[in-house]
Structures are given as C-alpha cells and as structure tokens.
Write a structure and sequence with these properties.
Length: about 700
C-alpha cells in the first residue's frame, strides 16, 4: 500500500469513526430522552413437572416500583388481570394462578389493604393441554405499576408448546417467545440488556418457586379473623343460638357420669362446631378455587346478585319471613345424636348448625363471600373466627357451670339483636350495588344518594332502638333497657355524622364504603358551594360535556369537548392524564390542587380536561381502531392511553400538560409534569399560562 492509499485509508477510518460516534451519541440521546417507562421486565416459560404442565411468568421490577397483585381488593388500585387468549378447545386451566411473595399495606387514599409485588413478581398457572396440535399458549397481562407515578401496562406472551410434552417423557423447559407491550417500540432495550435481565431472573426462579403458593397477607387474614369473630359473637346473641347455651351445657353436665366427663364432652362439642364451619370454608375454597370469588368481586352480575341476596337476608332478619333448611336434615342429625359417644356429639353440633341456620345463615353467607373475595385461605380463616366465637361459650360454661346463673334470660332483647343485624345487612347490601354502578359508570347510585340511603337506614335503626318503631317479632314493652338506649345514642351520633357528607364532608370513618367524592352529582355536596368559588348559577350554566370535578373545578372528560370550550372562551388547556385507580393522582388532587394558591388558577385560568386511561367503557364500534403497532383500541381508556403515548411519548400517570388552542406545549423547560410538590407545580402552572397567546 502506497502513501496515498494509506492516507485515504486513515481518512476513511477517521470519517467512519466519527459517523459511528455520532450514531452512538444519537441513539444514546434518543434513549435517554424517551419517557416510555417499562419498570417490569418479563420472561416466561413452560415446564413439565410430572404429569403437570406449568406456565411460569417472572417479572423483574425496578427499584422503588411496585406492581399490584391479582388480590388487591376492589375499590383500590388496579389489580393484575390474566387473560388466556386461545384457551377454548386447546387447554384447560387447573385452579387459579398462584403468586410468589407479595406485601400488603393499607392505602389511606382508597381506604383498602393493597397487595403488591416488590423487586420481583412470580406467577404460575397449571394447565391441561387437550389439543395435541396446539402450537402456542397465548397469555395477556394487564397490570398497574407505581412509584411516584403509575403506569397501566399490558404484556403479551406467546409460549411455544414443544411436541415432546408427553406424559411419559422427561420434563422439558420451553422458552417463551415474547411479544411487545403496547408501549414497546417507543423505547426498546438492547438485546444484550434483555439477555442479562433474563439470566438474572432465571437464577431467582428456584427461590421464587419455594414461595408458591404464597400465603395471604397476615394483616388481611387477621382482619378477616377479627371481623368473623365479632360476627360469630353477634350470631351467638340471636334467638336461634343463645337459648341453646344453658340447655346444651345442662345436658352435658347431667348426662355425664362425672364433672370431668361433662367438661370433656362440652369441649368436644365446641370443637365439633368449629370443625363443621371450617369444613364449610374448605368446601367453598375447593369448589370455587382459592381465588375465584376475588376475580368475581369486580364483576357486575356478581355484585348485583349479592346485593339481592343481602336484601333478602336483611328482610328475613327484620321479621318478614324465616330462612330455614329442610326439617328432615335436623331430624336426621337428631337421630344420629341419640347414639351417643363422639359421633353423637358431632351430630349434636351439626343439629345446632342446621336449627340455627335462620339466624346464622345470612351472617355466614356474607362472611364467606367477603372472605373469599380476598382469595387464598381467607374463607377458612373466616369460618375459624366465626365458629370459635360460637363454640367458646359452650366450652366455658361447661367448665364453669355456675356462670349460667349470670346469663341474662331469653326474651325480646334477642330479637332486637337480630333486627339490628338486619339493618346492618341492608346497609352493607348497597355497597355491592354501588360496586356494580361504579364499574358501569351509570351514575345511578352516586355518592349523595348512597349517603342518603345510609342516613335513612341508620336513622330508622335509631328510631327502632328508641322504641319508636316496632317490627313483627318484637315483644311489647313499656320501656327500653339502658344497653339499648346507649346503642340507640351511638347510632344516632353515627347518623348525624353522615349528614354533612351530603355537603362534601369526607366521612373518613366510612371511606371504603361510599363512592368517591368525584362520583357525585356535585363534588362539594347537595346544595353546597364548595369553597365558595362555585355558585348554583354557574352549575346550571356549565357547557355541554363539563361537570364538577375535585374541589369544584369544572372539568371535561372528552378532549374535543374541552378543546371546543377553550376556543370559545380563549383560555389555555390543562390536560390531566389520570386514572380511577391512580393513587398518586388522588394525592395530587387532594394535596396540591386544593392548595389556596393553586385552586383559583385551576378554576379560573385554564380549561381542565381529565382523561382517564383506565376507563373500561367500550367505545362505539365506529370509533374503535387498530394502531400502526397492531394494538386494538377498544375502550375509552385505550383511546386516551394511545393519545398520551403517541403525543407525549410517555405512559405514566399523573401527567399534566398545558397547551394552546392548537395543541402546542406552553412550557419550554418542562413540557409535561407529574407527581411534584405544590411549589414546583405552581411555578410550572404560572409559566405555562403566561406563555399563552
């Protein structure tokens, strides 16, 4: 090579190196500026364990982020939803998906215990393949992951089924083919990074397997046990159960040859009661699956059906009719009890459960559904707490028969307990009706209506306890007891506490029951004026598509409606990408929007458009479409999610943007802002408005 050729070669290499450096810098800058976040990196595979085929999903969650479990209760953040897309005719699910280690903490915004993964998420689902020609198992995850912001994300898996998966062959592991998420393509990690993550996850799979099935959170189970125990104590004080205590204990003490034998028989009797109800909890868990009713808890029909059931139970408790099991069941149990011995004692306990069903049945039914909606072994824990409260008096009074003399005599007070339970059942029923209304966004049972119903129920209960209302099975009386008076005063105070809720009071004592403040005819209550900044006249004159949102701010939920109004009054637009189940969105609204320096600006200087990315209502067929990336836009939430990603290159909530009437950003330094302090939010807000021309 001569000098000229060598010189040209050096120049070529120099130019090439510069081009390479420029390209690397360009892609690095692009990646660093991309705001599409994927805090959870997924891998999946299929394993064969003996005669079982297991789908295994592992997610590596970035530091400080957490992803919500399937078992986060209704009314809180969005729970993980798992959909099996090609299940019909190809494979059957064996039980419910099992989860690895999770953590539970109380969420004071939504008023529920939320369950979530930290660091890693591990999920297993057993399947039975029924189509020998099945090529892939297609699964889709919809989940929410949060830190200072929240992301509603979607992950699709297409897991290849090896032809070698036969019952008589050695277990094989098939790696999954991963599809892109809805937001993939806007910020894609390098292949090397994905491989590194996958290797890291595979090392932790064995550890995670040991944690399955994961126990239900301790706090949640203790709460269920405590509530069930109190419910069992309430059932004990009903006319069907209370009179049985002295009769049964006297039977054991008189029929036994010694006091020690009487005590032993009574203890066996108590444990038999516990065994019957715990077995009932086991049956419910076995029939429906450990987590089936959890999946049903957000189902509209489930909530409507249970609303009707609770109303029937309440009507029975109030004295309209009795719910009883067939008499033949009790007669057969009595016949077996006459045989004596351990078997006889067991059937005595069964006879008690059958005879007392008209009082205990509604309570047990409510407990089972409430406990089962938490998933796992909650139904068993619930029945253990209930039956323990029911059985303890029989055992204790057998040990100390002298205590029987201190028991109050049976009388009208027992029916009073039953009626009080009826009122409580009726109040609880409307929680289930409210769930259905919230899911469908029908606005039939808004916050004011719900609170008004509870005021009526507890007001009527107060009048009943004060003796102003009598019901069919009440005994005539000329006075009320001191205990009944105190209980009446307590319900009267509670009723008075509810009344300000009609005018916007937060009612923190019952925050988990009524719909949220935004789901109301007026966010500041019936006939109220919020903070004095909104009048009845302004409510009547609101433009089409607008409603009153948090703190009485006028808000649009459709972009086109809000844009049209902004053009009409010539004001800048503030886009609020939010979610019904977004915790930090509510925190910003409660803590920042309510600030006296911020609230007047939101009410007077901008047109607020709040777009809910988790709105599950389906779009009209003509408005549904498929994106260039192949994602189907079916729901209202899908539409706003796609708008947020395509326009602002991010998928986090809350997200705030101030734009002019042409959709251009008005903030130059920070075009968008998220979960920040009041001072930073106020400065950003003022800057954007000042740039509006």
């Amino acid at each position: 090579m001569n000098f000229t050729q060598a010189h040209q070669s050096i120049i070529s290499k120099s130019i090439w190196n510069k081009i390479t450096a420029f390209l690397l810098f360009f892609f690095f800058a692009l990646a660093s500026n991309a705001q599409i976040l994927e805090p959870v990196k997924w891998t999946s595979k299929m394993e064969k364990k003996g005669d079982k085929v297991i789908l295994i999903f592992d997610g590596t969650i970035e530091k400080d982020w957490h992803m919500y479990s399937q078992f986060t209760p209704d009314g809180g953040p969005l729970a993980l939803e798992i959909s099996f897309k090609n299940q019909k005719g190809n494979y059957e699910l064996v039980g419910k998906a099992k989860e690895g280690k999770t953590r539970t903490a109380f969420n004071d915004v939504f008023g529920v215990d939320e369950t979530f993964f930290e660091g890693k998420a591990h999920i297993e689902q057993e399947i039975k393949i029924i189509n020998p020609n099945l090529k892939t198992v297609d699964v889709e995850f919809d989940f929410q992951v949060c830190k200072e912001v929240c992301i509603n994300s979607n992950k699709k898996f297409s897991i290849a089924v090896p032809s070698t998966f036969k019952m008589d062959e050695v277990p094989v592991v098939a790696e999954a083919k991963l599809d892109e998420t809805k937001v993939a393509g806007l910020a894609v990690d390098t292949v090397k990074k994905e491989e590194a993550v996958q290797q890291k996850v595979e090392k932790t799979v064995e550890t995670a397997k040991e944690e399955i099935p994961a126990p239900a959170p301790a706090r949640s189970l203790w709460s269920i046990f405590f509530i069930a125990f109190l419910s069992g104590f309430a059932a004990l004080l009903t006319p069907c159960v209370f009179p049985m205590i002295p009769m049964t204990v006297s039977f054991f003490t008189k029929q036994s040859k010694s006091r020690a034998k009487g005590i032993r028989n009574a203890i066996i009797y108590g444990f038999s009661i516990i065994a019957i109800y715990v077995i009932l909890g086991l049956i419910v868990t076995k029939i429906f699956g450990a987590d089936a009713l959890n999946a049903l808890s957000t189902d509209v029909w489930f909530n409507l059906i249970f609303f009707v059931i609770l109303v029937i139970f309440a009507t029975s408790f109030l004295g309209a009719f009795e719910i009883m099991l067939p008499n033949s069941w009790a007669n057969k149990a009595d016949q077996q009890a006459d045989k004596g011995g351990l078997i006889g004692i067991l059937f005595m306990a069964l006879a008690l459960a059958i005879v007392s069903f008209s009082c205990t049945g509604p309570i047990v039914g409510t407990l089972l559904v409430e406990a089962a909606s938490n998933g796992g072994i909650a139904p068993i824990v619930g029945m253990l707490g209930f039956s323990l409260a029911l059985a303890l008096p029989f055992m204790l009074f057998a040990m100390f028969p002298g205590w029987l003399n201190s028991l109050p005599k049976s009388g009208g007070w027992l029916n009073t307990v039953k009626v009080v339970l009826g009122f409580l059942e009726l109040a609880l029923a409307f929680k289930f009706l409210s769930n259905a209304d919230l899911v469908l966004q029908l606005h039939f049972l808004e916050r004011e209506v719900f609170i008004a119903i509870w005021i009526a129920i507890f007001g009527a209960l107060t009048l009943y306890l004060f003796g102003k209302i009598t019901l069919p099975h009440d005994s005539p009386t000329n006075h009320i007891s001191v205990g009944r008076l105190y209980l009446g005063l307590l319900t009267f105070v509670f009723t008075m506490y509810l009344i300000p809720g009609l005018w916007g009071a937060p009612l923190k004592l019952i925050s988990a029951f009524p719909p949220p403040p935004q789901y109301s005819e007026s966010p500041f209550g019936v006939g109220g004026s919020g903070n004095g900044a909104v009048s009845a006249e302004s409510i009547k004159g609101m433009p089409e598509g607008a409603e009153l949102g948090p703190h009485g701010i006028m808000v649009f939920h459709d972009y086109e409606d809000g844009l049209a109004y902004a053009k009409e009054i010539n004001k800048p637009i503030m886009l609020d990408f939010t979610g019904y189940a977004c915790v930090n969105c509510r925190k910003m609204e409660n803590n920042v929007w309510s600030d006296p320096s911020v609230l007047p600006i939101l009410k007077n200087d901008v047109v607020l458009i709040s777009l809910y990315v988790d709105d599950k209502r389906e779009l009209p067929k003509e408005e549904q479409f498929t994106t260039e990336a192949g994602d189907k836009i079916i729901t209202v939430g899908d539409k706003w999610t796609d708008f947020m990603i395509s326009k602002y290159k991010t998928n986090t909530q809350p997200l705030y943007v101030i734009t002019d009437l042409e959709g251009n950003n008005l903030n130059s330094k920070k075009p968008t802002i998220s979960y920040v302090s009041t001072e930073e939010y106020l400065q950003w807000l003022k800057e954007g408005i000042s740039n509006f021309k």
